[in-house]
């Protein structure tokens, strides 16, 4: 345990400071771990999963017309892919391959079964955060203005409840000095809570397999019950990680 | 003489290359035996051909080799290196003259380059080779004339030629492509001239010919071409004998022409496309560097341009002002960043951009050197740039200033 908190921005966020000032405060005030483009992770924060409250926003009128589990999965895929930055090609390839992999591991969503099946672990998979930045903060509050040089960056980030994996793909292998320093500082400060995975020259599928092998299936989906796409907020912190 | 202006950049070293500081568009790094690092530079014009500079300590560059051109009516301008093999381009001042083509050198002993072979591209309508790209040890991608290529307009002589040098002693052509309509006999009509120029000189603007061609190991089936007034092209070269256009984009006109470099950012589905300023005193302003959305190769969309100082500030300081070469993320001992772009902009110096948000490129560093002694203009004319894997920035002056070595706080 380090006692610090990790502030993450991801997806379409191009101004981490603005994202934290707006959505970050709203998420923290609501006692959540994740919102649109921001996540707040502490020592006791459970894994960030596809069904973590706040991770996927579905208007009630849309939820009302989704009547198959396959449809729910497609919605999840659409939200995840649509939330990526438009020019994050490496992250896009990774997340697309990740969705295929978790569908394979979770098994099919057969037609005719209950819409919300506690045994369906697809939505319990860890949520990949594309084009992520990460800042470790000690003490109360968010230090604004942000110390720009201290923002570590990754193509994809995943929090499994104990470890934040920062995945570097493609051209981001050749880190600029400032970015390399930020990553090194984060690793030094956070120790085993941060794991940087540098995957170079790999296809999206190969990179996903490497990351899933490192995470392990148990951590990838957690333990049952899996709760489907909408995990009740009130129950969040009493569920197994 | 103009003065130094800088932000977040420091000059580590400056070398006028033994008084021959006019450098063209060939900059390539060799990691030689024993780990020595030699920066090879092609001169902009006669009398010198190429110069090798030992930059093992980038703060103490040292000329170790400097060669002469065969005669004064030609220039090299461009070269490239893979391993211990160097390719040098030869372009002549008059059509039909020689030597015009590419020469391959063994530079395993950097102080004593040895000629391996010469691939002749001379011809009655050819000026030889202007620019080359050689990063895989197998193919040279170049802008060259050919003895059997007859352009409709005399300035459209240098087409895209792919030369197989797997046997460096016996280079052979593997393929070629030209913009349809530019060759005599093409079914396509000749393209409309963007800014017609008198034909008393074949140099300069008003041309539909290749400038830079880039091919990367991530996509060996793709060539990215800057085709001067023809704009940017993406070619499928999976069959090098028959390149095919998969995408193109051309802002000229209304822009004043001269697309120079097309740099793909594969992790981001973006292209950086630079123009070249080719006239002094802002006569061809604005010459821009563009960010292009390449998520669909067949529908390239410009989304922003890189900010530059105003034309009222720099346009009339002397010499050229505007875009030219950018660091091309070359394979080898080179920085390969897709978030930061390094470019040289003649009298606006060397400029570094953060493109994390490609809709809003942001200048994060720059260095405008003072005008060098002996130059034909009062300003430095930063002409080409190379950034090594340690983020050391090398740039050169077009007329007299030679080699500048920088580091940036990035």
Number of strands of chain B: 29
What general form of chain A does the structure show?
globular
Uncertain segments of chain A are: 234-241
How many helices of chain A? The count is 7
- Computed structural class of chain A: alpha+beta
- The sequence of SSEs of chain B as H and E is EEEEEEEEEEEEEEEEEEEEEEEHEEEEEE
User: Tell me, what's the shape of chain B?
Assistant: globular
What integer is the average pLDDT of chain B? 97
The radius of gyration of chain B is: 19 Å
Q: Got a strand count of chain A?
A: 6
- Measured between the Cα atoms of the first and last residue of chain B, the distance is 29 Å
Helix content of chain B: under 10%
| Largest interface in this structure | A-B, 18 and 23 residues
The main sheet of chain A comes to: 6 strands, mixed
**Strand order, largest beta sheet of chain A:** 2-1-3-4-5-6
The low-confidence runs of chain B, each spanning 5 or more residues with pLDDT under 50, are none
How much of the sequence lies in strands of chain A comes to 15-25%
Could you report the average pLDDT of chain A, rounded to the nearest whole number? 84
List keywords for this structure.
heterodimer; A: 241 residues; alpha+beta; six-stranded mixed sheet; 7 helices; 34% helix; globular; disordered C terminus; B: 410 residues; mainly beta; five-stranded antiparallel sheet; four-stranded antiparallel sheet; 29 strands; 1% helix
């Amino acid at each position: 345990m380090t006692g610090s908190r990790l502030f993450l921005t991801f997806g379409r966020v191009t101004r981490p400071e603005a994202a934290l000032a707006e959505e970050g405060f709203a998420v923290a005030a609501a006692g959540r771990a994740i919102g649109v483009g921001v996540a707040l992770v502490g020592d006791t924060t459970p894994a960030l999963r596809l069904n973590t409250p706040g991770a996927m926003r579905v208007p009630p009128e849309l939820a009302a017309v989704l009547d198959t589990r396959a449809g729910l999965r497609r919605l999840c895929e659409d939200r995840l892919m649509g939330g990526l930055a438009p020019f994050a090609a490496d992250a896009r390839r990774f997340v697309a391959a990740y969705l295929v992999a978790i569908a394979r591991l979770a098994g099919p969503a057969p037609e005719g079964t209950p819409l919300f099946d506690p045994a369906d672990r697809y939505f319990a998979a860890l949520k990949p955060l594309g084009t992520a930045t990460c800042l470790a903060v000690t003490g109360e509050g968010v230090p604004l203005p942000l110390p720009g040089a201290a923002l570590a960056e990754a193509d994809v980030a995943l929090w499994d409840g104990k470890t934040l994996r920062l995945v570097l793909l493609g051209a981001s292998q050749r880190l600029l000095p400032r970015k390399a320093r930020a990553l090194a500082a984060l690793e030094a400060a956070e120790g085993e809570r941060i794991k940087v995975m540098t995957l170079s020259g790999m296809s999206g599928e190969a990179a996903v397999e490497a990351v899933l092998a490192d995470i392990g299936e148990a951590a990838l989906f957690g333990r049952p019950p899996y709760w489907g796409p909408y995990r009740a907020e009130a129950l969040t912190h009493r569920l197994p990680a | 003489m103009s003065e130094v202006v800088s932000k977040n950049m420091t000059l580590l070293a400056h070398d006028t290359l033994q008084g021959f500081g006019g450098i063209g568009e060939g900059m390539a790094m060799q990691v030689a035996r024993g780990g020595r690092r030699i920066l090879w530079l092609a001169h902009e014009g006669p009398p010198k051909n190429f110069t090798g500079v030992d930059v093992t300590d980038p703060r103490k560059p040292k000329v170790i080799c400097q060669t002469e051109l065969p005669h004064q009516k030609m220039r090299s301008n461009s070269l490239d290196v893979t391993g211990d093999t160097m390719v040098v381009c030869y372009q002549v001042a008059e059509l039909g003259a020689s030597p015009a083509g590419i020469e391959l050198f063994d530079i395993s002993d950097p102080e004593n380059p040895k000629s391996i072979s010469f691939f002749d591209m001379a011809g009655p309508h050819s000026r030889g080779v202007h620019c080359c790209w050689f990063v895989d040890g197998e193919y040279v991608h170049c802008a060259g004339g050919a003895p059997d290529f007859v352009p409709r307009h005399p300035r459209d002589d240098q087409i895209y030629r792919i030369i197989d040098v797997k046997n460096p002693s016996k280079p052979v052509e593997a393929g070629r492509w030209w913009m349809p309509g530019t060759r005599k006999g093409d079914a396509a009509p000749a393209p409309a001239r963007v800014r017609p120029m008198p034909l008393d000189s074949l140099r300069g603007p008003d041309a539909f010919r290749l400038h830079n061609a880039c091919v990367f190991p991530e996509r060996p089936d793709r060539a990215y071409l800057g085709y001067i007034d023809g704009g940017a092209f993406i070619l499928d070269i999976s069959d090098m004998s028959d390149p095919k256009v998969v995408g193109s984009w051309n802002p000229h006109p209304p822009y004043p022409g001269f697309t120079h470099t097309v740099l793909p950012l594969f992790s981001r589905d973006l292209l950086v496309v630079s123009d070249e300023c080719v006239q002094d005193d802002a006569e061809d302003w604005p010459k821009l560097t563009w960010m292009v959305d390449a998520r669909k190769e067949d529908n390239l969309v410009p989304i922003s341009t890189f900010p530059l100082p105003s034309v009222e500030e720099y346009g009339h300081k002397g010499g050229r002002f505007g875009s030219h070469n950018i660091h091309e993320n070359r394979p080898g001992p080179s920085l390969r960043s897709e978030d930061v772009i390094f470019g040289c902009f003649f009298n606006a110096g060397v400029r570094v951009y953060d493109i994390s948000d490609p809709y809003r490129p942001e200048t994060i560093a720059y260095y405008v050197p003072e005008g060098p002694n002996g130059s034909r203009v009062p300003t430095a004319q930063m002409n080409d740039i190379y950034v090594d894997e340690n983020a050391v920035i090398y740039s050169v002056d077009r007329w007299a200033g030679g080699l500048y070595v920088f580091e940036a706080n990035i």
